[in-house]
Amino acid sequence: MKIAAYTVVLGLGLLASACGSDKRGTGGGGGTQKETVKIGVMHTLTGEYREYGPPADNAVKLAIKEINAAGGVLGGRNLEAIYTDSKTEATAVAVPAMMLVAAKVAGVVEDNSSSISLELLKYTGPASIAQLSASSTSPELIKAGDNFFRFAPPDTLQAGVLAKQAHDKGINKVAILYEADDSYGKGLNDAFKMKFESVGGVVTQSDSFDPMASSFRDLIQRMLAGAPEAVMLPVTTGSAGKLLKEVKAQLGTRAAPRWLFPDSLHIQEFVDNLNVAKSLVEGAIGTAPTTSDEADAKMRQTTFTTAYKAEYSKDPAQFNDAGYDSVYVLAAAVQRAGSADPAMVLAQIREVAGKTDAPAGTKFGPGQWKAGVDALAASQGVNYEGASGSCDLDDNGDPSGFYNVWSIEGGKIKDATTAVRP
Q1: Is residue 415 part of a domain?
Q2: Does the global pTM surpass 0.85?
Q3: How far apart are CA 75 and CA 130, in angstroms?
């Protein structure tokens, strides 16, 4: 497998660092003399979320490889990805975003934090470029723009599931700690607080904090003074690790609260790296998006996972299935539009992903690109059913969702065997 080279592009006063494209069509689908159809990709290759970027890139490359091997788009044109790095910083988005707009990409697929997705929309929106997110779940992105679509459900749903799980387990008092200036954490804080209080729960504290602070002592002391039975922590793995280690040091002889974790902490490596604080999270309750328990949904997930493991000799990471689906939906929109013009492609996204209120068309899924193309050639509608779920979108560009209610037992993340629907 050839890894795309990240280059520096200078033109018309636009400097785009940490960007690149694979001239083979990005995925090894074979060369062609026809002009490629370019799509933009923005992932976190450096910064705090840098571990998420490479596997997210790999999911995109796999989808492109499959599509190109099955004939590509628009009569044999290969997809070619232009890769960019968000650097896990909203302030770093401008340069790569302007580069993608200048390249007139057919659409952009991304796997970033919600804050980065919101910043990217400032550039894709005015250019009428479809922006498909694999992982941004903040409620702030609901109705954020007519060009925004996502295949991870909004956190208004996740908050409801987590609040109900806490309530059902007899937890009545919860504190919430989240990072300042983070739309993901703020969105989950607001939604969880509303949902938990609606079932009779009490939120003892709802505090934002500076993740770069040298100490969280005052924050932790306020939290412990409220005597919560559990603490909800919608933060990054780095902030969670620092905070939990300080909580462990400050607890003394006091009983530790239980922990409620959202999808951002559904990572075994995070738990392993807690070291002395690992015992603190034993019995934690968590939620993360997943597929439904229906047989066809499980089959689609298995198809993707098997192909990913065969290509990269490792399991996909969280949200990689949604990133893979984003490429298939974008490619299908190009095919249905009969053009790589971004505005024309944008108009077709919901038509090929399927509509929540009226899904219709010939269904095709992971690894079935030719079936989708054939259906479109026969003037039939298509409805892509993905590895991450049905991919049907509502009027806001949001999917419905199912959740995995996970826990930490014996220092290991234990996923549920059945999915929960909000």
Answers
A1: no
A2: yes
A3: 22
Q: What is d(CA 412, CA 131) in angstroms, rounded to the nearest whole number?
A: 35
In a domain, 402, yes or no: no
Distance CA 170, CA 283 (A): 14
User: Does residue 196 belong to any structural domain of this protein?
Assistant: yes
404: closest CA among 303, 244, 285? 285
Tell whether 66 is covered by a domain: yes
Asked if residues 399 and 354 have their Cβ atoms less than 8 Å apart, the reply is no
Q: Are residues 133 and 12 in the same domain?
A: yes
* CB-side neighbour CA atoms (13 Å) of 401: 26
List phi, psi (to 5°) of 280.
-65, -30
Pairing mode, strands 173-179 and 202-209: parallel
Residues 57-70 have pLDDT tens digits of 999 999 999 999 99
Residue 210 CA: distances (Å) to CA of 46, 177, 183: 20, 11, 14
CATH number for the domain including 16? 3.40.50.2300
Query: Does 121 lie in the same domain as 195?
Result: no
Q: In what helix (H) or strand (E) does residue 8 lie, and over which residues does it extend?
A: strand 7-11
Beta bridge partners of 215: none
User: Which one, of 383, 356, 193, lies nearest residue 300 by Cα?
Assistant: 383
Give yes or no for a contact between 96 and 311, defined as CB atoms under 8 angstroms apart. no
Residue type, 16: A
Would you call 347 helix, strand, or coil by DSSP? coil
Q: Give the chain's domain count.
A: 2
Taking every pair of Cα atoms in the chain, the longest distance, rounded to a whole number of angstroms, is 71
Please write the tens of the pLDDT for every residue from 258-285.
999 999 999 999 999 999 899 999 999 9
Same-domain check for residues 20 and 140:
yes
Domain co-membership, 179 together with 137: no
The amino acid at 283: G
Query: Could you give the CA distance from residue 310 to residue 314 in angstroms, rounded to a whole number?
Result: 8
d(CA 368, CA 370): 6
For the record, the structure tokens of 238 come out as: 């780095």
The CA radius of gyration of the chain, in Å to the nearest whole number, is 22
**Which pair of structure tokens corresponds to residue 57?**
């890139």
pLDDT in tens, 110-157: 998 899 999 999 999 999 999 999 999 998 898 788 999 999 999 999
Query: Please, what is the end-to-end C-alpha distance for the chain in angstroms?
Result: 40
Could you tell me the residue range of the domain that residue 164 belongs to? 156-283
